[in-house]
Amino acid sequence: MNYKFIFILLIVFICFLNISQSIKIINNNNNNNNNNNNNNNNNNNNNNNNNNNNNNNNKNNNSNNNNNNNNNNNNNNNNNNNNNNNINNNNNKNNNIQTKEKRERNLIKFKEIEKLKKVLGDVKSLTNIPLVSNEKLILETLFSKWNGKDWDDNTNWLNGDPCMNQWYGIECNSFDGGLTNNVISIKMGLNNMVGEMPIEIKDLIHLQTLDISNNGFYGEIPIGVFQQMNNLSYISLNENNFQGNLEWAAYLPDSIVTLWIAMNQFEGTIPTFFSKYPVLDLLFLEENLLVGTIPQEVGQLQKIKLLDFGLNSITGTIPSSIGNLSYLEQFWLYDNQLEGNIPLTMGNLQNLKLFEVTRNQLKGDLSGIFLNNPNLKSLRFSGNSFYGGLDWICQLDGLRDIHFEINQFETLPNCIGKAPLQMNELLLADNLIAGTIPSSIGNMIGIEYINLARNQLTGTIPSSFNNFSNLNRIDISSNKFNCSLSDILDPIKHQTHLTIISAQYNEIHGEFFENMVWDGVQQIELLTKIFIINLSHNKLSGSIPEYLSWMPNLNDLDLSYNNLSGTVPNQLSFLSTMYLENNPYLGSSDGSLPLFMEPSVILIHKDTESYACPSIIGKGFDIRISLDSTYYNNSFCVCDYNYRGVNGSCKLCPEDSYCPGGGNDILIPSGYYPMPTIENPEYLLKCIISNFGYTSCNPDSSYNYTCQEGYQGRLCSKCVDGYFHKGTECSVCPTGPQSIVIFIVVVFVFIALFLFFVMTDPKRSLPSSTRKTVMYYYQVFNLLLSKLSPWPSFFSIFYSGSSWLNFSFGFLCINNLSRWPNLFIVMICLPFAFLAISIVFIALMQLFHYVKSSLNGIDYIFNKKLIYSGIRVNLLALNFLYLPLCIYIFQNYPCTKDHVSGQSFMSFFPWQECGDNPTHNRIMNLTIAFTIIYVIGIPLLFAILLFYNRKRLDNPMILTMIGSIYIDYRKSVYWYELVALGRRFFMAVSLALIDPKSSFSIFVVLLVIGSSIISQIIFKPYVYRISNYSETIGNSVLLFSYVCILILSSLATTKLYDSQGIEIILSVVVVVYTVLLLLLFLFSLKYFLPRKWQTVIDYHIIKFITWVRITSSNIISDIKEINSIDGDDSFETTKEPIFERTVSNNLNVLGSFELKRRNSQINSNCNNNNNNNNINNNNNNNNNTIISAKQLDYDDNNNNTQKITPGQDCLISLSIDNSGTNFNSENNNDDNNNNNINNNNDNIKNNINNEESNKNN
């Protein structure tokens, strides 16, 4: 008997010490959470106190927890509609609910242990007797293995005797009559201990209490480590990281009373062996990794009082054997996967006080199950699928807490005759309850907290709510109450303990009235302890009254999402939280704030808005305020980045522009034009890039958008007065004397050209082919310069110098003639102007000859050659005008549609609108007409003339009249001018009719230039080889230039590589070819010199070529191939001339040069003697040089001359000293070697003398 008594005392002592340490821990936790007010209420509230902890004010945030959406909005300081914050806050809420519930459960458990301590008493540790040596060694081992140096408290450890020196957490007692001490208790919870459970601890056989909870232990617990501790009654290993299954728990001593191993990582199923421990009254297995079902053997835990299997993965049903646990007081099964019904045997548990199955999958009707549980105080069934009536709770007199949220109950309890008067919390949120609130609810006079949120309730608050004596909080949010505000507040306004009213998300209407806060009869203030009022998301109207300030403890006021109007009274400055957003009629007319408010420096952005507004704070007060920016007319708001505007009227910054935000500033980058207006841009259009990479649209990229000087209109594409179009650029018009000089020069140039064309007769000559090469090359090159970009700035010289070849007369700046469409009209009239000038000129010349003949007394003979020359000049004009005409005409066709406005504008004149526009329609009519007249008509005219006269092209009249079309080409390709017109046509199509930057345009240009090169090489159409060479090189230069510009354009876009090298190479190539054309042009001018001078020039040219050939022969080893070329130098005519002529079939490379002359008159002696002499010399000596001159009709009524037929030649031999060297030795024979250079020189002199005599004759 004494032994049992001592044993009981020891157990009581150990439990008392453990309870003291646990209470210390839980008190620390409570202090950390600042939950010092009304702990009982907080313990009983599952749904609302989470936000109390978050905000350190349980009253303030209980209201917010009634409604998840509103709570989320409130937790966001200044953005109540932020969905992301709502989601985060919902997650936080769920976590907070579970944390609060866990804290409440721990508090309940510690209270039960406190009760046990008071019953068992306490055992004092003996500190005057040393510890047995082997146990001291064990403690030293524990210190080493559990990282003792890093413990939060290791006071006196390893210093002297553990008992006598009172090592922290160690308690001792003697079991040998006071000779030595033994360790009876290790209480070192929450001490930053780390390690595994060592097997050495098994030798502490007298250990009664082991508390190492809230540390960092891990690993598996060795089996049998506690088996020899026959006095062990308390084990607390909770909140560590122990792993493995629970097999070790099968080897505990029978003395075990408390086994708290929660919040670890134990695996497996719930063991069946716990039933063998006879005195086990507390078993906590929550928050592990246990699976499986609850075994029936649990019903054999005869003494169990507290049983916790919560927060595992337990499945199955609740076993009916639970009804055998007659001592069971508290049973927790929360957060598992249990299903099925509550067993009826639960009614056998006479001592059951608390039963919690929160968040499982249980279901069924609870009626009649708990009617035989007289001590039942708390039922927590939230988060399941229970249904049925609730009138049965009226029979449970002692019931205090009903937590039935998130189920499927459809009615409220109607306790008419009998009601649980001690009911504190009635939580029925998130069910399917409909109808009105029965007035019998008021019979539960002890209710402190009633939560009916998120149901389908209607009607009003019954007046019986006035019966509640301690009503602290009421939550009817998210229902369908469609009543006045008075119907809600009047039944509860006399509640002196009421602190929180949550009625958000209903259809409550009406206004505030003074009698809601003031009892005029008793002359007292009402709702004096109200702390939170949440009436958001209703239909309240009227103004916010200043008498709301009569509620002295009001801290949080949420009136958001209503229809309130007026301004916020300054008397509400005492509030801590004020939510007033989404009241569309609430605001000040002048955009001012109440006196106690001011905008903060923190800008809050709403997802649905394009601007940010400052959060509103108290001026000198710490107030959290949520107020719409419309209250102050958005006067403090600033636009977001990439938006522009003021006072909240912010528009998206157009694509490609830059808006820094905060105002109306917009930076439109260089090269873009704002539409529809500069002042209010909604989108940007790309401007035309000038030929040399410049842009006229906001060239300085400044916030103050301007067109470059000289530009105006849409896309900054139209020139202002005083400027003219030079391609896509606007240049300053010449003024004063400069303009007069330019006009005179232009007139002079065109007169010179006109005379040049007239004076150049149609016979084949180098000037004729040269002008075609020059005109074609520079017309196309100028077209490329005007339509493509970016050209190096160096090429502006070429552009300015070649513009007149495409008849760009804009630089004359003659009133509006230099502008479209006047310039277009001038251009299409130009051929008619040439025709008119030709007619006037011919008429004047005929008149001149008529007057001259009349004065000399000679009969006037009408000169038909002037008519023929006029026709030839006009054909030449049409030939050279064809490409400019095509360009001017084609430019009128393309229109670009503005996909935003739907309007179309001319692509090359972007300021001019297409479609139903008088100007455009008039010009399009002219364009279509002159497309037929010029674009189609000119090639058709040339083709008809060539086809009709194809068999008489040698006729002098035909030659004089239309010879300019075919005279420069070989006879077999007399039609080649049509090919030349075709390539001009396609070049105009690709660069004027099609977008020059399109892929199709690129394809056409490359095809046209490439085919021109190929045809030039294949046909060799020109009579003069140098013309063929220059034309081929010119096309190659055009192709090279075009490809270079494509590359430069790509480099300008990517900006990955330097373009300087390509620009230099392109410049060099163009300059070299320009020099070549200049030399060719200068050489062609010799044909306008006297024939004697021409012969001298030819002599020196031949001598120079001979020197070059001889010099090159020293370098080129294979000279045979060169000598086999037909013709002896670059100036020789090709094999097939258009007229019959005498051509030596064996021309020496160094000695032969055939030169065509214009209008040569050679006498018969030259024709007979020199010609025969030269032919003989040619047969005998291959070193002789032959000059052949075509003889055309010449008749000036001179009887001393002989008419020479077109088929006759005058061959002039030119002998050149080759230093006795026979250059082409393989082709010479012995007979030819007898002729010498001196004879050739004599022939040259004789020929010159003959020409002089002919001239005298």
Short note summarizing the structure:
The chain is α/β, with parallel strands linked by helices. It contains 23 helices and 51 strands.
Please provide a written account of the structure.
The chain is elongated, with a radius of gyration of 57 Å. It is of the alpha/beta class. It is 34% helix and 14% strand. Helix 8 links the parallel strand 25 and strand 26.
Low-confidence stretches: 1-90, 1117-1245, 1251-1257
Span between termini: 174 Å
Form type: elongated
Number of helices: 23
Structural class: alpha/beta
Largest sheet: 22 strands, mixed
Percent range for helical residues? 25-40%
Note the beta-strand portion: 5-15%
How many distinct beta strands? Answer: 51
Show the helix and strand layout.
Layout: H1 2-32, H2 39-44, H3 49-55, H4 58-66, H5 68-75, H6 83-120, H7 133-145, E1 170-173, E2 182-187, E3 194-195, E4 209-211, E5 216-220, E6 234-236, E7 241-244, E8 258-260, E9 265-269, E10 282-284, E11 289-292, E12 306-308, E13 313-314, E14 330-332, E15 339-340, E16 354-356, E17 361-365, E18 378-380, E19 385-387, E20 401-403, E21 425-427, E22 434-435, E23 449-451, E24 456-457, E25 473-475, H8 485-489, E26 500-502, E27 509-510, E28 518-519, E29 524-525, E30 532-534, E31 539-540, E32 556-558, E33 565-566, E34 577-579, E35 585-586, E36 597-605, E37 611-618, E38 624-626, E39 638-639, E40 643-646, E41 649-652, E42 672-676, E43 681-686, E44 711-712, E45 718-719, E46 723-726, E47 729-732, H9 737-759, H10 766-787, H11 796-802, H12 822-856, H13 864-890, E48 895-897, E49 904-906, H14 918-948, H15 956-966, H16 976-993, H17 999-1019, H18 1025-1054, H19 1060-1084, H20 1091-1113, H21 1120-1123, H22 1164-1180, E50 1184-1190, E51 1209-1215, H23 1237-1256
Parallel strand pairs: 2-4, 3-5, 4-6, 5-7, 6-8, 7-9, 8-10, 9-11, 10-12, 11-13, 12-14, 14-16, 15-17, 16-18, 17-19, 18-20, 20-21, 21-23, 22-24, 23-25, 25-26, 26-30, 27-31, 30-32, 32-34, 33-35, 34-38
Antiparallel strand pairs: 1-2, 28-29, 36-37, 37-38, 37-39, 40-41, 42-43, 44-45, 46-47, 48-49, 50-51
